[in-house]
Amino acid sequence: MPSSTPFTFGIPLIPAALAADWDLVQDLLGLTLASVLAQTDPDFRVVIAGHDRPSRLPDDPRITFVAAGWPAGENRPDNLDSGRKKHAINDRVLRDGGGLLMFVDADDWVDTRLVETARALVTPDHVGGLVAAGFATDLRTLRGVALPHPAVFDGDFHRVCGSSTVVNLRPGHPDPFRRDPYPVLHDHHLWLETAREHGAEPVRLPVSGTYLVNTSANHSETHGPFADWRRSFNQGVASAGTPLDDAMAARFGLELARIAAVSEKLAGKGR
Length: 271
Fold this sequence. Notes:
The chain is an alpha/beta fold. It has helices at 22-36, 80-95, 114-121, 176-179, 182-185, 191-197, 219-222, 227-240, 246-251, 256-268, and strands at residues 7-12, 45-50, 63-67, 99-103, 109-110, 128-130, 133-138, 143-147, 165-169, 203-204, 208-213, 242-243.
């Protein structure tokens, strides 16, 4: 696949009306965007879909905000709002000519080599790429574990974190699945199995992701059908994890001091 293949990061953002703490949501988004913008290959764009434009977006021409065209509704266990925004981003990328698209939750971090690696390894024969290894990081304790972990979660990273898949959109392909795999492959934890059922094999990307937990703003921890399990997962990360250091933060394009400032701000709010 040519190195000029377009690459888009798509970020669905919770409405301010549904957020318990909109200021915290913006702080977390700030970390996510700092991580995304630190890519070794700077040729990409970021599309944020939301009801409310954040007031602290970086002044970067690669970032586009797309306003949602429906009422905010309510928080639902199936997180319908996020799903609708992902579909809107997916459709926009298709209209713009396709390319590689990675959805990133507005509180997760990505490896600085993600774009470079995906462009090098995802060929036209692949429906996309998969980040199967990564970390879970507790924002309150600033401790993290590599996944899989026998005492926390023994599955691959993509089984628990949605910021782990890169879909290959090809608007001109005659096969509907190859043209737009996302409607079929939207469940990240079933990506491998579902792709294989359709005769496809995502390429495993040798980079890591970070699933940020214990933020009080993660839908899976507060409203999802497995919220109790997610909270026990967080406890496991805090108990078995090792302290986040400068080298680990830099791996995801961040500075430890900036992460610690958000952590301290969260602690100060008593959440």
